[in-house]
Amino acid sequence: MPRTTVDRNPRAIRPTWRTERHLWRTGAKRVAGVDEVGRGPLAGPVVAAAVVIPHTGSGHSPRARWIGRLRDSKLVSPAQREELAAIIRERTEWGVGVVSPQVVDQINILRATRLAMHRAVQAMSQAPDCLIVDGREVVDGGLEQVAVVDGDALCISVSAASILAKVVRDRMMCELDQVFPGYGLAVNKGYATPAHRAALARLGYSNIHRLSFAPVRRAVMG
Fold it and tell me: By residue range, what is the domain housing residue 138?
């Protein structure tokens, strides 16, 4: 399976079409950016998104105003992410993959991350020609792919995927907060904040916590 790893300046915060253009020139018409959210939390699922932003047949990038607003999801406010995610759903081809915390515990977080990415690509209505994957991950399935370190900050398609995945997972965590109150999931999104750790010590773990993560195991053991 062809694969390239590209390292770039992590301080760059405005994504470009550079990687997509290179792939378009090689004949890949449908290039999907792929990113995941939720690798590090103590609770909740891993969520990945795959996004293909249409472009003209000549290979010129689309110039829609909303595309210029795309950034790494961590650099965009929650309100801006919600607005952009709605546009992404309406104007792009996309898929979302979710892996539960129980599966994370069964197969480990690295494999769960790759599974979520694979599911996101599989959920698309039409298979892409090539993937741009954030970080150094490999998406199973035999598709040509380019791994870009800090791709969510550097590649427009990956930025779009990072925003969509973040919005989907944040909504899920807000819903889970209603089912499992007391952990502050709507606020901390399952991450290991001091308040979340204190709640684990006080309440014990729930069935959406990842028992394979050390802070959760410590809470189980008392």
Answer: 3-176
